[in-house]
Amino acid sequence: MIYLVEDDASIRELVCYALRSHELECIGFENGAAFWRGMEKSLPDLVILDIMLPDETGLEILTKLKSSEKTAQLPVLMLTAMGSESDRITGLDSGADDYITKPFSVLEFLARVRALLRRLGGTGSQQTLGEEASSIVINGLSLDPKKRAVKVYGKPVTITFKEFELLHYLLLNKDLVLTRDQLLTHIWGYEYDGTSNRTVDMHIKTLRQKLGQCGDMVKTIRGVGYKITWEDESL
Predict the structure, then answer these.
(1) What is the average pLDDT score of the chain?
(2) What pTM, to 2 d.p., does this model score?
(3) All domains in the chain, ordered by first residue
């Protein structure tokens, strides 16, 4: 089930129709109050948020979702007319797993939704990510694929759905340099346009910040991509 929060009735109907025509269940809400009432009844598999809403903004809703243990891992896609780089950075830094600006391509929108749901459902490339089901523990950093839990020196760290997939994939490929294109293909599940490298960079930035003392394990390979290592490369 997908929950869409969009105050423009025509866009809400278009998005819900597109999702339903591809056999995806969708419920549309015109404001935050209606959305929270829906959340009290049942939790969705994915939330799609507009930012400019009549009662509370989509960013305020996003912050509440990510600050609650019950919904912190719930994938969120922002669908908004606010398309500047600073707007995108704010949305992703606030915990959004993807960010699409209006006007948008329905086909691209559906591709991004399917990519998020594939990872949630354990199909497609998620199966590759989940091949190693045991926990990974390195120098104070631990990741449990089954519980989808991350800890730094025993302290739980709340990260987004995409940040978890990114960290897991880096750990599964320890010491290997992964290009941005590889990360986009394996984590996002489809080809982005030429500006998409910024998406990877922003997720890496927020992931490092949240990992605190272990953040420096994620290394930047200038002009290529990223890798994760826990060895002192100065030796």
Answers:
(1) 84
(2) 0.62
(3) 2-121 (3.40.50.2300), 131-228 (1.10.10.10)
